[in-house]
Amino acid sequence: MPADRLLSTLLRSLQTYTDQQDTPRLLATAASLLTTLSNPHNLSLLTSHLLTAPAFWERPDGLRTSLRLLGVFHSSITTLITHHNAVREHPAPLLHPGQPPIGGGLSIDAWARAIVSGADDRSARWTHLLVLGGLLIGMGSQEEQGIDVEWAAGLRKRLESALVKATNLALVEVRESGDADGLGGQTVALVLNHSFGCLSDFERTGLDYDLLLPVLLGTTFFSSEGFQSAYFLGGIDLDVVEVAGKKFNWPAHSSSFKQVESIVSRPLVASMGPLSRLMAHAVENIRDPWLIQTMVDDLAGFSRALTTQWRQNKLSEIDVSEEALFLEEEALRTTLPVLWKLLKAALFATTIVLRGVLGRILSDRILAADGVAPVLATQTLHTLRHLYFISNRLGPASFSQHTFVYLTAIDILTHYPIQSDAFLKSIAPPQLGNIPGHPLDRTLDLYFLNTAEHFTLVLSPATNEDLLVASAVPYLAAGGNHNMLPIFEAAHSVILAVLSAPQSAEITAKHLPFYIDALFKVFPDDLSPRQFRLAFRTLLRVTAPPSALSATQPDLPATLLELVHHRALHAPTAALAPDSVQLALAGSDAPPPPLSEQAVLVLTLLDALPYLPVPLLEEWLPLCADLVNLIDDDAMREVVKGRFWEVLISGEMDPERSSAAVAWWGTRGGREAVLFGRESEHVMSGALPVETAARESKL
After folding, report:
1. Residue 677 has pLDDT above 60, yes or no
2. I need a surface site. Which of 164, 483, 517, 697 has the fewest CB within 10 A?
């Protein structure tokens, strides 16, 4: 069919919407005509109709309609660039009889000018972005593939400039029409998300980020094309059913799972990584800093809704470690992985945006003001707390951006003791002294404990004792559940942080006996070797001179050493089960060797040596050497010997202690005791063996 007749037929089909229409066929026909029409007016006419056609826009399929139109212009210019490159290499390409020339015989500049002319006043301004964005993305994708487009560099610069201007006009239009969270705003977000990488740094500065940021935020987190204000979690509970064996299942054929699958496949959610980076860039370049505070409040509201919806779900009542026991195979293998994929996308997007916020606080004097910075830091930490049931599943340290946001917000807030006190009280466990039964509540307790240990230096002694110690005590002596090891260790870290605070001397004297007793009770079953060694080293530091406690209880360090020494003499020699750190390093080039309880206790004593007064150090160096030789396993003994040598030479000791240690090693039999204690009798350094002495006496 001739192109003109095909154009007329297509235009008539675009005038009405019918349930039976073949939309992909209409779009394919349009794409074909855009690359074959030779009359610029017809190209403009077709473009204009595509942007206003009732067949597409009367009942649009959300952003999928916009994405399809974007693809039409993308594929058209891709075809033209390929054709013009072929012509440049072969000036006279052969055409089949009746085949229309690609681009209608127009230059690519004339063709693009005709296409863009179709984006006129008869269509909404946000639809113009589909034309300009499609053309620019097409050129950018060709360049990324290594295809020569330098000959069209002028066109690309004009498209970049036009897209920025059209975006700003579209943002004004959607704000005035109240369509910021509707299809208009969603289309702006879609096009800019895909085309932002094609814009030069100079053109990016021309975007109105004050108008863009609210559109991006609303579209991503609160619109029907984004995370829907987290309400998608609410319908899951109705579809979680109990099956045989007292297990629960979330069927793949349920309506809630179909909805989750639909959300995951949405254009914006599927490309959430670039979109979140675009939002962070907007935060960094926004002119009105107060918009950032509004945005942070919105993110806090979204995360709070996410946690609330999750709590109302039966799935939240199952601990991660018990999912294999209480969930059906279909839920474990099919439905839950899709849900967690969606929740991780929400976590990553929120974290990346907050990274931009924290970076802006550090560089903006308005946001860094005393009345603003602690508020933003507090809201950031609240947001991370509400998302902790997701990040804790991943392991918070596995996401570097999350670690940066978390620690930076804490660092900012610690400069404001009053606000720090109020924040910790607002997130403290509602019932101090009890371990909650709900897994989500225990997760929130873990967040509180992990966060609280960073604030002990700026809190009052009363808050440290009444809030932090009281929150940690229930977990200190609790045992019997190895799956709760992270929260047990967090509780120990909080107690150690409180005891180490300079203002906590009275608290230390009051709670130290209880803590020492709890520490020895839970190791090694409910406390990892790494945490036990850290705890004991901290105790030595807070009890040895020049601490305030050492003045009233000078014998406490020696007593602690005796406790460990006595236990090491009778400790089991079998290798302990690997902890999380050992498991994480198992595949590294130098995985840590397995250690027994006895070896860990000896290492604990060696860790304490740099904190001992010199007289006590001289007493315990030979005792530690004797313990090293009690270890029967050669590999474990070599590890302990290596740590002994490291303590002596690594600079952990001050000059006075180092001198005493060197003297013991060199002239008092230390070297022989550590290196050869199991192979031969101890020989004093500088003395002659009996045989040698007898032989020399005859001479």
Report:
1. yes
2. 697
Lowest mean pLDDT of 5-9, 99-103, 335-339, 662-666, name the range: 99-103
Under DSSP, the state recorded for 101 is: P
- pLDDT confidence tier of residue 1, bands split at 50, 70 and 90: low
Among 48, 179, 14, residue whose Cα is nearest residue 121: 48
Q: Is there a contact between 135 and 77 (Cβ–Cβ < 8 Å)?
A: yes
Is this prediction's pTM over 0.90? no
The band of 579, judged by pLDDT with boundaries at 50, 70 and 90, is: low
| Count of Cβ atoms closer than 10 Å to residue 668 Cβ | 16
The C-alpha atoms of residue 49 and residue 53 are separated, in whole angstroms, by 5
98 — pLDDT class (breaks 50, 70, 90): low
The span from the CA of 431 to the CA of 61, in Å, is 49
Compute φ and ψ for 616, nearest 5 degrees: -70, -35
Q: Which DSSP string corresponds to 255-315?
A: HHHHHHHHHHTSHHHHTHHHHHHHHHHHHHH-S-THHHHHHHHHHHHHHHHHHHHHHTSGG
> Is the pLDDT reported for residue 619 higher than 80?
yes
Ranges 91-95, 321-325, 622-626, 648-652: which has the least confidence? 91-95
Query: What does the CA dihedral 355, 361, 364, 368 come to, rounded to 10 degrees?
Result: 180
Residues in the chain: 699
Q: Which two tokens stand for residue 277?
A: 């980076």
Interval 501-530: pLDDT, tens: 988 888 888 888 889 888 888 888 888 898
Question: What burial letters (b/e) apply to 618-636, b meaning 16+ CB within 10 Å?
Answer: bebbbebbebbbbbebeeb
Instruction: State whether the Cα torsion 445-450-453-459 is positive or negative.
Output: negative
Portion of the chain with pLDDT greater than 90, in percent:
69
Tell the burial category of 80 from Cβ atoms under 10 Å away from its Cβ (0-12, 13-18, 19+). buried
* 231 Cβ contact partners less than 8 Å away, ≥ 6 residues apart: 305, 309
CA-to-CA dists, residue 171 to 216, 221, 688, angstroms: 11, 18, 92
CB atoms within 10 A of CB 520: 14
**Geometric angle at alpha carbon 507, from 505 and 512, rounded to 5°:** 95
Distance of CA 84 to the CA centre of its chain: 45
Instruction: Note the pLDDT of residue 244.
Output: 84
Among the listed residues 173, 164, 171, the one whose alpha carbon sits nearest the alpha carbon of residue 206:
164
Q: How many angstroms separate the CA atoms of 45 and 118, rounded?
A: 6
Whether the predicted pLDDT of 325 surpasses 70:
yes
CA distance 477 to 474: 7
In the structure encoding, which two tokens stand for residue 559, read together?
Answer: 């007593």
pLDDT digits (tens, 9 = 90+) for 347-361: 999 999 999 999 999
From CA 340, how far away is CA 396, in angstroms rounded?
15
Q: What is the reported pLDDT for 661? A: 93
Q: Which DSSP category does 534 fall into? A: H
Q: Which residues pair with 243 in a beta bridge?
A: 247
* Long-range contacts of the stretch 207-210 (C-beta < 8 A, 24+): 207/164, 207/167, 207/168, 207/285, 208/167, 208/168, 208/171, 209/282, 209/285, 209/286, 209/287, 210/286, 210/287, 210/288, 210/291
Q: How many CB atoms lie within 10 A of CB 145?
A: 9
